[in-house]
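Board notes (copied after class):
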Amino acid sequence: MNEVLINNYKDFLNNGKTERECVAYIIAQAEKNGYKDIEKVNVLQPGDKVYVQKMHKAIALFNLGSDNLEQGMNILGAHIDSPRLDVKQNPLYEKDFTVYLNTHYYGGIKKYQWVTIPLAIHGVVCKKDGTTVHISIGEKDDDPVFCISDILPHLAQKQMKESASDFIPGENLDVIFGSETPAVKAKDDSEKTAEKECAKKNVLRLLKDAYGIEEEDFGSAELEIVPAGKARDCGLDRSLILAYGQDDRSCAYTSFRALLESTAHTRTNVCVCVDKEEIGSVGATGMGSHFFENAVAEVIARAATCLKGAYSELSLRRALANSTMLSSDVNAAYDPLNGDLYDRENASFLGGGIVFNKYTGSRGKSGASDANPEFIARLRKLLDDAEVRYQMAELGKVDQGGGGTIAFECAKYGMNVLDAGVSVLSMHAPWELTAKADIEQAYNAYKAFLTL
């Protein structure tokens, strides 16, 4: 077992609980390995290493090979967003001496899994004076944590009769942010009004003192509610990792680490980590945007003179179409206690190695990217020669549902794309499980792929 890899992976999970934190971590590691911000580089030569970032929430790293970029690139693509709760723009309110933050959940979650567990707040508050305040509360041993309350079993008869999707309404996923009970009971309406304001005022005072934040600054904030706590070994044999955000940061980490520890030869090697996959790859930092396309254009423009040809729209299209890509995304691990949801012969298992999904999508492959068998055959040979363990799988039984990845967005360019990632148990839960062996095999597989 590559213990250094595993420990560094857990460090990444602990320090990358938001997209911004992941990008900052990746940039710091990349610069240690010789990568430069492309904005500071005018001309690129073979062997050069550069990165392009977008809004601090998406990043693409390039290690230039000696071939004309029109011949294509080897691309590892992952997403760095994970299901969570987002703080609304007007979030702070007090109700009967308890102060809450109003939230809106992000991505596919089971709402009941988020109540009564310790939560942390990560993100940024952007002020009108142009300054940005970075927030991380709930991760240090002496930090306060936050939580969402639930009904005690003694009073939950009605709640327990409702469906799992309904008994915790989305509007009830509000985080307890503070509380204060008046020392003396109010005697008249004016005193009651003062009572209702006292807890919220105290919280606002604390925010002002600690961070210089006013209530109206929430309007230009990006605050994410995530599980508090660090990645931990799981199981008496320590074979598993229990942590938040392993979908899809398990693949993002192994992808960018494989790139940093590889050297491009003829083909240019690339790792792209994007945002918004959990809500459809939308927005300026999602794979559905022109972010990656624009990043490749910037590289071609700077490398045109040394890599045989001037920049043109056609050169960009050829570079993308002739590329090969592993869409580094996770797959659902077989759950022995719920085996009836899986086609066991086409399921992925914890510890079985990196997972190849020829297609994803839901039910009749809706929203899928269906990889070409010729490309899969090349990869099989490559990994067999490198003695990398892999498994072929689908997400679950055909009629049970399904899911998508960024693969279909990249396949639009005409490149060969295959979903290849880590098997995850309890996917989209606040705490997810992966096998250490799979993290290592994914890393080895991505390194082998970069030699194509």
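Comment from the instructor: The two ends are 25 Å apart (CA to CA). The chain has a mean pLDDT of 93.
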